[in-house]
Amino acid sequence: MTPSYDAFPLTPEVPTCCTMEESSSRNMRSSEQREEMEKVSEKTVKKRSKDEEDEEQVEVFNFNNKCSEEEEEEEEDRSDSEDSVFSGLEDSGSDSEDDDDDEDLKVEPEQTLQIEEEDKKKEAAVTEVEEEKHEDEYQHDSSDEEDIRNTVGNIPMEWYKDFPHIGYNLDGKKIYKPIRNKDELDDFLDKMEDPNYWRTVHDKQTGSDIVLSDEQVELVNRLQRGQFGDVNFNEYQPQVEFFSQDVMLHPVTNRPADKRSFIPSLIEKEKVSKLVHAIKMGWIKPRRTEDDSRGRYYDLWTNEDSSLLARHKMHLPAPKAPLPGHQESYNPPPEYLFTDEERALWEQQDASDRKLPFVPTRFSSLRQVPAFPRFLHERFERCLDLYLCPRQRKMRVNVNPEDLIPKLPKPKDLQPFPTTQSLVYRGHSGLVRSISVSPSGQWLASGSDDGSVRFWEVCSSRCMKTVQVGGAVKSIAWNPNPSVCLLAVAQDSVVLILSPLLAERQVVLSTERLLSGQREAESTEEAGPVKWSDVEGEELSQGIRLKIQHPKAVHQVTWHAKGDYLASVMPDHSSHLQVFIHQVSRRRSQNPFRKNKGLVQCVSFHPVRPYFFVGTQRSVRIYNLVKQEMTKKLQANSKWISSMAVHPGGDHVICGSYDCRLSWFDLDLSTKPYKMLRHHKKAVRGVAYHRLYPLFASASDDGSVIVCHGTVYSDLLQNPLIVPVKVLRGHVITHDLGVLDVTFHPTQPWIFSSGADATIRLFT
Amino acid sequence: MGGLQKKKYERGSVTNYITRNKARKKLQLSLPDFRRLCILKGIYPHEPKHKKKVNKGSTAARTFYLIKDIRFLLHEPIVGKFRDYKVFVRKLKKAYGKTEWTAVERLKENKPAYKLDHIVKERYPSFIDALRDIDDALCMGFLFSTFARTGKCHVQTIQLCRRLTVEWMNYVIASRSLRKVFISIKGIYYQAEVMGQLVTWLVPYQFSHDHPTDVDYRVMATFTELYTTLLGFINFRLYHSLNLVYPPKLDIKAESELKEEDDEDYAMNSESYLEKLSSLSTSLARVVSTAEEEEAELDKFPVEEEDLETMEAREKEQKQQEAQKKLFEGIKLFLNREVPRESLAFLIRCFGGEVSWDKSVCIGSTYKVTDETITHQIVDRPNIDKQYINRYYIQPQWVYDCVNAKLLLPVEDYFLGVTLPPHLSPFVEEKDGDYVPPEKLKIMALQRGEKPANEQEEEEEEEEEDDEEEEEENEDEDDDEEVEEKNLKKMEEQRSQGKSLPVKVTAGKVKVDNPARLEQEEKAEEKRLAIMMMKKKEKYLYDKIMFGKKRKIREVNKLTAKRKAHDDAEKSKKKKTRK
Predict the structure, then answer these.
(1) What is residue A178's predicted lDDT score, i.e. its pLDDT?
(2) Residue A621's beta-bridge partner residues?
(3) Would you call B488 helix, strand, or coil by DSSP?
(4) What is the mean pLDDT of residues A23-39?
(5) Per-residue pLDDT tens for B520-537?
(6) How many beta-carbon contacts under 8 Å exist across A and B?
(7) Which of A28, A366, A718, B547 has its CA 20 to 30 A from that of A9?
(8) Would the pLDDT of B441 be above 80?
(9) Cβ contact (<8 Å) for A288 and B38?
(10) Residue A350 Cα to chain centre, angstroms
């Protein structure tokens, strides 16, 4: 049981200590055992004492140890031998098991070393012990005895409370509890009578009562007092300074070096060979030399070769960051600081909409300037721009806006054209829908919504005559033949032929002749949709000579250049009866179209040739009246044509439309407009060509009349020259209507316009 | 007919582009690695002209790269390094997992590293190319050198950035190439002209950064990696162009002086050297020690008369620049401890001035406050207790404004406690029609050599008033005409409504025909008519240009109005105080 010194090879003093403790503890135990044994078997007492003697011997030896180290060896041997013997026996030790195991482990190697020396002594010892064994097998073994009593192990003993036994022995027979039929009274009697009652302890494990011996009681007392269990142990013995400044002559232990220290290690060899193999195979690379080339620079551009330049042709260098303006200054001029409203706006705006990414701020001195909170963000965003933004070369248009304006001939050089408003003809009370100038240029006729047709002298702006026709006048047209003086007026569904008698006698006579020539053929045309009738009575005295009754409301009337034919328009989606051509001399009417080709807006005769222009909603059709077929269809590229005029040469047509456009067609060129003019802001109501001068005009709801110069060349290769020369204003816009009709003076570069403000104006 | 049907999206512009994901797969790189590669190699996405065609009919938002670019990346040796690094990380993880510390150590020692020299050379085949692109590199370098040594990036990177930026500043000082400087609310902008290239950089104020969370530092670090390499090579070349030693060494003479003073204060020699360099107080050692560099004078060539003017202008400019280089020569400044030392020392040294500071502020101070020869002391506090009579106490803005104005401005406006004149951006070049702040006009007058005086100002004011009066008169005339027209219109209206007016003849006023005005009107009318005849496309463009112009005018007017209001307010305040 004594621990071997090997466990503490360096400290010869400590082992003694340990042995002391051990022995004391064992003393304690052995005394316990002794008591038990007294109870159980008296035989053991003897052996016990013997054992004790042994122990004491050991102790003696131990103390001797200090004096002589030679004796120590012997002691060691002995203890070893003892140990080896005991270890074989006590395999199921309760308390000291762990200790024993450790000791066993540590002891083993020494045993091997010292086998030869020990052999003889060991044998002697073994024989000695064997002798003892013969006497009593379990003499020294207290734990075994215990085991016999308690075979159930460390379990709560309550489980056996109701049984007469505790556990079973090897043979499977019950181990009975000692008979014990003490009740409270017995207990009390015991207490009263038994002098040993106070030192009697009940052992639950076995169910027996144990009376403690004097020594045991003493031990308990000592422990309770906090003293060592061993009586003989002196806790105040002088300390031996082992590690001192003195260099000792001898090693602490006299153990010879291990064998393993002379033999090359196999494990190491294996490891080394593994490494060598790994290096050979290239799995482990030799340690790299420290590379400090980072941060070491040289002349990189010693020879600038152009081999890489090819790639760089495509490369777009990143644009540089924009340079800061005055706003970014820490102390900007006061005008760059935000006002309250600007600041509020800035705060409201989304970050991407803001003009400045920061608020201009003023600091009175440099030391007050704080760190910019978005500095890192801005740098990071720049980084992102550099590697994430697609780069594109954008061609910036660097044009002088003046260069964009087309070079046109100066209006001054294109004179004459009307420039100023010179006369205003007042008298109508409703808006003046239509005006017309007599071929002589002396008279102006106007038809108004107030139901009157007025005749004005152009030069004096005097109203010479007023004819009440009894309804709004939609259209009015003076016969272009200078030898007659007739006027066609469209009023609701009636076309009136007026003879205003505002001419010299010759003309009046020829007019009478023209009107009287009709009567011969009168009877023939009765059944048609159009009814011709003469006028009598008061109306005749006013000058109305003929009435042509139409089935529907007439919107426009227009004369042929010869003055014999008259066309009237009745716009209607559903029927083919939209246009009528009347011959005044024969009082005959005919409908030239068999089919409805769309809503007819306006019609016009070709000034020279037998062509007839029909303006429908989106296109202009040109019919050959002789061949009776369509020759051309002009696409106006506008939504709704409002008016149309034919150039006196007959090769050009202009169309005004309600979507503010004026399109000029060159009939020789194409069916598409040669030019679209978007001069007006509002719907174009009327267009007109001048008969002699290269002028045309357009009137619009925005209250303006725009006069353009439009030279037409007889040379086919030269395109017409169109130059706006004057914007004439004067009419007042009433009820969203501006200028309603426009017409040129037949000989002078003058222009008349009639407007919704019930006036007619002359611009010269 | 016959033949195979043509497949869609297999020819044409589709073949020129590749989406980012596909490119990544082709290169077998992870997205971060791909990003890094793009940053290092300077590959940027391209916007195809017809996105839908290139995107194979889909309109999903995708980033496209040129397929040529990606093919070019395939041969990049760094891609291999990236893969090595991936393997390295994997091995390291494994070793950690197995707790094989020797293996970890060994792996760490063999950590794959790459160099960017060849990339720099490839991206910038000539030195001038590199110089042209140095702006961002400098900005980033200055930013990173202000980072704390902990946390966001490697300490080595920060140190390297600091070293390179200090080298750059030293070069600028040595070559005296600084041109403009601007204190903005973001930081201080500097502009230098290096070998004919304008280089602008921004230095943040010296505060610790509170690092935002929405910034990816890996991206910035990758950029910095490239930029430090670039900067290093550029610095090397620049130093050699001036016959300076690289890495920079202090002048031996100066060094010995410094050593005597400061050896005890700095424990680490290596650090103290950089500190001394960064103090910017001493000149650098040269390879071949020359006397003062001779002035490069323009050779005179026989030139024709047309070129003569430009030549003269160039000469004048050259002279001006020379003068600017010596702006602070002969001036001895002392920096108080509250002013930004590095920026001011850099500036003053760039323009040949002498500068010093308190010894405890930084290493490298050359003289003390008590030096009697100091001419200017830069102070940024309301007042100072002990003042020397023979020196000006001025605020730091004076130095910056002097540099921008290219002349020594009068110091009166910059005394202690005086409200400073506004600090203007030198980068704004006003064209005619732009708003020019009055302060700028004043400086321009100074540059021209005119004397600024209070009298003049007053005169100006008077003139202004006169102008106003004249304008008012003009307005009155206009008003008269307008009134007449109105009357006429009224009459017309009344007449049109059929009301008979009381017929009377009023004496007509004789209208004075102003021929000039008439002509102007005529011209305006002509223009208006011509504009009507513009083609649709041109009209659109014209309108756009005119809109831009009008907006600009509006802005200028707004600024002027604001300024006027401010000035008036100031004036009235002044009057009040006077009363």
Answers:
(1) 75
(2) A614, A633
(3) helix
(4) 46
(5) 988 888 888 888 888 888
(6) 273
(7) A28
(8) yes
(9) no
(10) 15
Q: Are strands A432-437 and A443-448 parallel, antiparallel or unpaired?
A: antiparallel
Residues 429-488 of B with CB under 8 A from A: 437-439
Model pLDDT for residues A438-462, shown as the tens digit of each residue: 888 888 888 888 888 888 888 888 8
The two tokens of residue A555 are 């919107």
Distance CA A604, CA A612 (A): 6
Nearest residue to A634 via CA among A673, A598, A661:
A673
Q: Using CB atoms and an 8 Å cut-off, which of residues 284-323 of chain B contact chain A? A: none
Query: What is the token pair recorded at B3?
Result: 């033949």
Give the three-state DSSP class for B105. Answer: helix
The span from the CA of A138 to the CA of A86, in Å, is 12
pLDDT, mean of residues A530-536:
78
Tell me the C-alpha distance between A603 and B505, whole Å.
48
Please list, in sequence order, all residues whose beta carbon lies within 8 angstroms of the beta carbon of residue A524, skipping any fewer than 6 positions away.
A588
Tell me the two tokens of residue B300: 């005179």
Phi, psi of B382 (to 5 degrees): -60, -40
Q: How many CA atoms, within 13 angstroms, populate the side-chain half-sphere of residue A471?
A: 12
Q: Is B339 exposed, middle or buried (0-12, 13-18, 19+ CB in 10 A)?
A: buried
Helix H or strand E segment including A202: strand A200-203
Count other Cβ atoms within 10 Å, centred on residue B185.
22
Measured distance CA(B306)–CA(A494) in Å, rounded: 82
The count of C-alpha atoms lying within 13 angstroms of the C-alpha of B89, restricted to the half-sphere facing its C-beta, is: 6
DSSP A99: H
Mutate to test the interface with A, among B91, B118, B185, B274 (most CBs of A within 10 A): B185
Give the pTM: 0.64
Q: Is the bond into B32 cis (omega within 30 degrees of 0)? A: no
Sheet holding A751-755, edge to edge: A421-426, A759-763, A751-755, A739-744
Over 70: is that where the pLDDT of B472 sits?
A: no
A461: left (phi over 0), alpha (psi -120 to 50) or beta: left
- C-alpha distance from residue B512 to each of B363, B480, B521, B523 (Å): 80, 13, 15, 19
Give the position of tokens 């031990």.
A219
Helix (H) or strand (E) holding B220, with range, is: helix B217-241
Following DSSP, what letter does each residue of B6-62 receive, concatenated?
Answer: PPTTSSGGGGGEEEHHHHHHHHT--HHHHHHHHHHHT---B--SSHHHHTTT-----
Q: Which among A698, A699, A693, A691 has a CA at the least distance from the CA of A738?
A: A699
pLDDT of residue B275: 78
Distances (CA, A) of B179 to B137, B323, B350, B373: 19, 12, 9, 28
In this prediction, residue B255 carries a pLDDT of 59
**Out of B68, B530, B562, whose CB is closest to A335?**
B562
In whole angstroms, what is the distance from residue A723 CA to residue A725 CA?
6
Partner residue facing B204 (CB), from A372, A404, A426:
A372
Question: A271 — contact with chain B (CB < 8 Å)?
Answer: no
Q: What is the distance between the alpha carbons of residues A64 and A71, in angstroms, rounded to a whole number?
A: 8
Residue B399 at interface with chain A, using a CB cutoff of 8 Å? no
Nearest CB to B47: which of A361, A379, A392? A392
Q: How confident is the model at residue A675 (pLDDT cuts 50, 70, 90)?
A: confident
Q: Could you give the CA distance from residue A579 to residue A590 in angstroms, rounded to a whole number?
A: 9
Query: In chain A, whose CA is at the least distance from the CA of B558?
Result: A335
Using DSSP bridges, classify how beta strands A579-583 and A531-534 pair: parallel, antiparallel or unpaired. unpaired
Average pLDDT value over all residues in chain A? 76
State the pairing for strand pair B392-394/B376-378: parallel
DSSP string, A503-547: S-HHHHHHHHHHHHGGGGGGGG--SSS-EEEE--THHHHHTEEEE
